[in-house]
Amino acid sequence: MELKEKLVSSFLAFEANVDTTSPIHDIRIEALKSFEAYGFPTKKLEAWKYTSLNSVIKNDFSIFPKKEVALEFKDVKKYFISDLDSYKIVFIDGVYSSHLSETTHDKIDVCLMSSALSQNRFKPVIDVYYNTVAKEDGMTALNTAFAKEGAYIYIPKNTAADKPIQVIHFSTGVDGAAMLQPRNLIVCEDNSEVTIIERHQNLSDKKVFTNSVTEMYTGNNAHIDYYKIQNDTDASSLVDNTFTEQHSNSVCSVHTFAFGGEITRNNLNFYQKGQGIDSILNGVTILEGKTHVDHNTLVEHQEPNCESHQDYKGIFDEKSTGVFNGKIIVEQEAQKTNAFQSNNNILLSDKATVNSKPQLEIFADDVKCSHGCTIGQLDESALFYMRSRGIATKEAKALLMYAFANNVLESVKIPQLKTRINKIIADKLGVNIGFDL
Amino acid sequence: MSKFTEDDLKKELETKEYEYGFYTDIESDTFPVGLNEDVVRAISAKKNEPQWMTDWRVDAFRIWSEMEEPEWANVNYDKPDFQAISYYSAPKKADPNKTLNDVDPELLATFEKLGISLDEQKKLSGVAVDVVVDSVSVATTFKKTLSEKGIIFCSISEAIQEHPELVKKYIGSIVPKTDNFYAALNSAVFTDGSFCYIPKGVRCPMELSTYFRINQGGTGQFERTLLVADQGSYVSYLEGCTAPSRDENQLHAAVVELIALDDAEIKYSTVQNWFPGSKEGKGGVFNFVTKRGLCETNAKISWTQVETGSAVTWKYPSCILKGANSVGEFYSIAVTNNFQQADTGTKMIHLGKNSKSTIISKGISAGKSQNSYRGLVQISPRAENARNFSQCDSLLMGNECGAHTFPYIEAKNKSAIIEHEATTSKIGEDQIFYCNQRGIDTEKAIALIVNGFSKEVLNKLPMEFAVEAQKLLEISLEGSVG
Questions:
Q1: Most confident region among A60-64, A218-222, B87-91, B367-371 by mean pLDDT
Q2: How far apart are CA B376 and CA B348, in angstroms?
Q3: Percent helix, strand and coil across chain B, each rounded to 5?
Q4: A365–B426: do the CB atoms touch at under 8 Å?
């Protein structure tokens, strides 16, 4: 049976396990209808021109986890930034693991979507924000239809989260190939601040297909820092749909570190609804093997005096494929917009491919918008320079690549996280040098 | 002199009417409207074409009737009704002997009004002009000088009669009948166009030039241009267009095929100034053109275009860089005003080693127009050391227009170096202030900035054409271009 039919027909079974009387369920039913109409995206859609999900959706995924699995912290410790004092929300095969998590309701709410959807005290927030930022497309509708679990983070007015929040999704493969659909909601009210680190990790060699939706609401003067670490196994595919609504003078930055996974697709959307907003989208992609990463970004400038900065760096080896599809829309009212987009790529192999499509759609005249895109190689003379000074080729290349990605890495504000990312990069490049030179 | 501000310029741009809107009354031999296989056969019969050509057209028509009109471009328009167009119209007095004296005096007056008086050109500028009015060649000059060098420069109908082996070999080889909706339509119904063949090692001594002009109301113009530069030859080809003011939309679906064999070089320049519609957005020409060139080893094709006209422009002059060391260039200025829409750009397909391409695109939008750049740079796995540089700049005048950039960059070779850069801005107040400070008034300052903005492309035009281009640019940007 095709995955689409399987999903649609399993909705009845899904309904047996959720509260069908809540208004959330009406949203689910509507979303299911949309998904039936849209289906999975195909290459015929302009936004999916370079990424095909066919190789993923042909698998027979189990849609609901059957067995609960407990993991020992020592076994999965390496996937946490364990030297960082943080809140933790951990899911194993889509099910919340209280054992590994550390949540709070003290001043801020860091907890589960399932409790937020079912408990009355969260209702005012859910009613206002849930499913309001996300724009509908096939994958998002699919997630909305089956949404019941994920991270719920609420930072009230004039509050800063006292420590970063780690959200980690493990999959164990006990049910064979699995499809996961986490749904996250992050609400930062006026003058609040939060830092979030998100990671998806497959612990088995079984196929995993994650279709995640994250909605972020950034109130006036609020500040969100969001780090996505995508360093999953070759059996894992991820479609990450992130929607951000920003209000006046807010700053929201999303950093995506894509280092692995069979197919990774990041749909990152920013909607600016106020003035003085800054949106920052950074990405480092380092791939080898047959991996495929697609960054699909959208920044919609709707009001005057806002900025956006996009900086995506990619290094592609072996048979990997990198896609960058960035779109900046500047509406007629959005005068004095400064929008920048830059996509730099290095190709290390003749079998690797880069497809880049940086788009500008501008309807206002008093703006400064630019985009740049480059594809090239490591500088031979720089390599020679280092080799002539006794640095081995491998290390010299690694240093150059690190330098290439450095201005994005520099933007990581948590030192422990930065060290971790540096280590991942060093491992990937097969060198044993600390980059904190 | 009163101060000329950007607002004045905007106002002037809005109110400027199409200068060359006049209509020449020539009795035409026009087909009734509609399109079916019989019409295709009739066109072919009318032109006395050999059987293979008729078959080719009919085949194209069959392909076309299976196709759907594409919708992906960033333009909105009412789809033309293909059954409401007459597919053949020829000025009646056209004489096969074609001496300048035989040309309809009214037509000559038309050209004079356009400032391209034939005899003047013949005497002064040394440009051979193959004039196309409503699809049939009415005058060809300098044929003799060209034929001494072995250069064939004639209308495509003539070429089908006299050089069938060349036409048969190359027509449809770059833009196949199946390529796209409008190319298929053109293949079925093209009535005329130009054919040019430069023999081995010959450097064409003069700029070859064709002026297209849509004249008869309600007739679509389907031009077919085929240009073959044999090994080691060089040619510079100019194409320019103006059309009279008409209310109903006119469709223009041309196909241009360029073939540059080993070591050959083709420079193809276009000035397009068809009726852009009234300032309410009524009428205007639909310009849906397929232009493509093939470069063999060491060959070079350079497209230069100045686009100021047409209600809807939809064209991507492209280069297939098949041979090693081949070079493709694209220089473009697209000016849109009022309700004009342009979706234009280029495709550079790198297949050969060490192939190089350069793209410089300048878009100027004013009024309520939409101006899009859409380009593709594709590096195939075998195109080692391929190099591309692209730059797309947009200038916005007024807050009701739009500028869009859709570049597609696909690299499949590690030795490729690709750079793409795009900026969008308005004329900076600080730039104007800087000029004012130094005693340059605002009008001059704007002229200076717009001029500087487009100079990179204007400089690429052959000298004979640059004047014309400047003149045509003035229609959209008078008062700003010095």
A1: A218-222
A2: 6
A3: 25, 35, 40
A4: yes
Q: CA of B452, closest CA in chain A: separation in Å? A: 18
Take residue B152 and report the two structure tokens written for it. Answer: 């064939």
Within 147-206 of B, beta carbons closer than 8 Å to A belong to: none
On whether any CB of chain A is under 8 Å from the CB of B131, the answer is no
Task: Supply the pTM of this predicted model.
Answer: 0.84
Segment holding B183, helix H or strand E? helix B181-189
Q: Read off the amino acid at residue A248.
A: S
Indicate the helix (H) or strand (E) that contains A228. Answer: strand A223-230
- Chain A nearest-CA residue for B404: A361
A72 touches chain B (CB under 8 A): no
Q: Say if B82 is an interface residue toward chain A (CB within 8 Å).
A: no
Please answer yes or no on whether A347 and B414 come within 8 Å at the CB atom: yes
**Do the Cβ atoms of A354 and B410 come within 8 Å?**
yes
Nearest to B471 by CA among B240, B283, B243, B278: B240
Per the DSSP assignment, residues forming a β-bridge with A361 are: A329, B404
| Residues B142, B127: Cα–Cα separation, whole Å | 8
Q: Where are the domains of chain A?
A: 3-273, 378-437
pLDDT at B134: 46
Q: What is the pLDDT of residue B218?
A: 43
Domain spans of chain B, in order of start: 6-91+126-477
Tell me which amino acid residue A103 is.
Answer: T
Q: For CA atoms B100, B106, B108, B109, give the dihedral sign.
A: positive
| Cα–Cα distance, B472 to B19 (Å, whole number) | 10
Query: Does the interface ipTM go beyond 0.85?
Result: no
Q: Any chain A CB within 8 A of the CB of B68? A: no
Q: Does A361 touch chain B (CB under 8 A)?
A: yes
- Residue B428 near chain A (CB below 8 Å): no
Query: Cβ(B319)–Cβ(B291) under 8 Å?
Result: no
HSE-CB for A308 with a 13 A CA cutoff: 33
Q: Is A408 helix (H, G, I), strand (E, B) or coil?
A: helix
Kindly report, residue by residue over A109-125, the tens digit of the pLDDT.
Answer: 999 999 999 898 999 99
Q: Which amino acid is at A181?
A: Q
> By the 8 A CB rule, do A246 and A133 touch?
no
A310 vs B contacts (CB less than 8 Å) = none
- Closest alpha carbon to A196 in A103, A93, A86: A86
| Maximum Cα interatomic distance, chain B, rounded to a whole number of Å | 71
Q: What percent of chain B has pLDDT over 90?
A: 32
Q: Do B421 and A356 touch (CB under 8 A)?
A: no
